[in-house]
Amino acid sequence: MSAEEVRELLIDELNPMAGACAVMIAHLIDAPDEPPATREDLLAMVTAAMESGRAPIGPLEYAEEEIDYGLRTNVPVASITTSADGQVSLRLALALSGNTCIGVGGNRYGYQPHLGGRVSPWTVLLPDVEAGLAELVVYIDERAKLMGYHGRVRATLELISAEPVHPGTIHGDSGRVVVGEPIEAFEPLTFEYSIDMPAQSLQSLVYEVATQVARRFGADEPQFLTRP
Length: 228
Hints:
The chain is an alpha+beta fold and 228 residues long. The protein has helices at residues 3-14, 39-51, 126-147, 199-216, and strands at residues 21-28, 67-71, 77-84, 87-96, 101-107, 111-112, 117-118, 123-125, 152-160, 166-170, 177-179, 189-194. It has one domain (3-216). The protein contains four helices and twelve strands. Helix 2 (39-51) crosses helix 3 and helix 3 (126-147) packs antiparallel against helix 4 (199-216). The radius of gyration is 17 Å and the shape is globular.
């Protein structure tokens, strides 16, 4: 299964026709394609990440709504959903392929508590994207440990939406969300590293990628991640 196929699994789970979603996919460049990943592989990765205390990160960590967990029967795809007022307020999705690809994505469908509830479904908060990046790196690490993988990683971040994305940032003084001018096309960001890169260097790399995202959102620096 290719990175594109994992991307499609996430899109199918998150439905960008209903709201802008962030999708992050990692390719373990030097891993063999076989054997194909299973639901058990996905569960082992998630369990290891949660037991380590490194996941979840971001909106799910602070969710007060009821949380529902889903796991597909035919492919290694899991979803985590919260609801507010009878409507989905957040959906996160994870997907695996045969040893080579890991996918993480999320969609709020316009539910933004910082903005007073429901807003345009095309709004994406910068801190959410940063949290997704951080969580992707955690899952990459746990998957690599389970596989005994020590090779290279290529990761790509996209914002996928049926309409231009409305970038949301946090005002430094008031703490309120500021929604900037719509982004007509968000060019995917790609970065590479070795799985054995020192932790401090990897944190610096992720922070640099988050800085690039922040500038596209109209902010000077990341708003969730701190400088290593």
